[in-house]
Write a structure and sequence with these properties.
Length: about 625
Amino acid sequence: MTDLPGRRPPPTPDGAPTFRQRLDNLRHLGRLIQQIWRTSPGLTAASIGLRLIAALQPIAVLYAAKLIVDEVVYLSGVAAPGPGVIDWWEAGLLNTIALYLLLELGLVLVNDVIGRATGLVDSILSELHSNQVSVELMAHAARLDLMHFESAEYQDRLERARRQAAGRNALLSQLFGQAQDMITVLTLAAGLFVYAPWLILLLPLSFIPSIWGETRFNTMAYMVSRWRTPERRELEYLRYIGASAETAKEIKLFGLGSFLIERFRRLAQGIFLENRRIAILRNSWGAVFAAIATLAYYAAYAFIVWRTVTGEFTIGDLAFLSGSFLRLNGLFQKILLGFTQIAGQSMYLDDLFSFFEIEPTVLAPAQPKPFPSPIRQGIRFENVGFRYPETDGWVIRNLSFTLAAGETLALVGENGAGKTTIVKLLARLYDPSEGRITVDGTDLRDMAPGDIHAHLGVIFQDFIRYSFTARDNIGVGRIEDGADQARIDLAAEQSLADGVIRRLPRGYDQQLGRLFKQGRDLSGGEWQKIAIARSYMRDAELIILDEPTAALDAKAEAEVFARFKGLASGKTAVIISHRFSTVRMADRILVLEHGAILEAGTHEELVARQGRYAELFELQAAGYR
Ligand SMILES: Nc1ncnc2c1ncn2[C@@H]1O[C@H](COP(=O)(O)OP(=O)(O)OP(=O)(O)O)[C@@H](O)[C@H]1O
């Protein structure tokens, strides 16, 4: 079985990441900070600078409070110079305490301003960062192969990464806040250390149980969220088919509403129960661990009170120490929890950054050869074999044929015969597993995928119905000329889309699809004409139409093909169709079965041969008689 490239081994047999992997995940924090910096160096520097100032504020306020208390104690022992404040003021006794009060007021006011400024900077930075990550994610996804999008595993990874792009905003403030708290702790601890060094040791000891608990529950929550990615995607999917314009018709007619709701409910309930179990465990243990920390705080407090009673500490010292200790206690708890949370979040960051590590496999060689323009000889499949990643069976095997320059080739065959797969190989959306495909003798693998795509006009049977204007729906066929009205007009005329557009109330400016306000939906055949116009936007060397006329009525089909023949004259073209009225117009027809060629020839030759083609043709013709 072919494996998916870039797949990582599962973390451990039971699925939980090892200690080393968790440590490894912390690396991502560096990457995150770089990404934040890239988003806006100015705002990042502002956020860090403001936090640095804010970090020093608590010790300054506590120390001012200590000075005030000691001054009050001193003043309460001084003989009163008179009954009123004025008497005290005139005697010059209040100068010092007034200064201290002003100092503390100033500190508190500045802190408030800094707090708000930090909040503002962080919220702007978060939004910018989240946009930046989304843009990087889209840019990276655009580089990946079709294979990645056709694989459930990669879709899970993309979904996890997408969740992280929006979900990690809080991490930014948390990370910077953590640094701020650590500086505050250092300053407070230094103050405390001067008075009672061993108290500092008591603090971390009281938090070890908390750290253990948090790390454990974080890992549990992450693992559940990871295991549940496929189910979450299924939930999204159910939500989508249960309530969307595309699906409403069928869901209503088949009466699938309650079926979908029941399925959604069952899935959601499973996830809910698991999350609830972890939340209950986390909070129960959290309460126990918090009680241990509180006990430690009161033990220390009792000690300081005792030292004050015995006269070793002043009342101001008591205020300072108990204040410091209380804040330290709170901060330690916050920092330790912060660390475990950040470590937890960094597991999720792995989801984001590991997506960026997925590399495309259909690559341009170092020195790509140009796609021949025009094609002079033709395209050759030489013993081509192909199987999709993660599957065992060959979809195509030992396939050899030539598509001569200027020839229109039709591929026919039953469902699953491999027709669309041949087109994917021809467009180098996949590389063959065996053999090679050449254009004028040059292997497709020696050309850059982008260059190949620029020379192709391809419309797949599941083409996109863009919820854009009619103009953009055609213009996207050649985005660099997306505003070239003359070109769009010509493409629309060649594909018969011009008639569709003339009937739209706003013409080319008409919003199509039902997704947005004033959007106008088209019939299947009308959409198809618009899609064909898209492929005509290019001066394509090779035109590939996969079921181009499936939704067209008989008259439109005949007309589209008459134009196609005119347009494709001199151009190489491949058409896939189940309609023999379409197929018979091709210069040559390949009949495929199980990824191999069963018969080849013109319509007349194949009918005369009385083989599979003739049989299928008869079947269809009989249906019309
Ligand atoms: N992304 C994929 N991963 C795995 N198998 C795939 C993938 N795409 C197609 N297949 C399988 O490859 C085989 C050929 O599919 P393909 O789409 O080429 O058939 P087709 O001839 O175009 O069929 P149809 O006439 O129904 O459009 C099928 O058996 C299909 O199940």
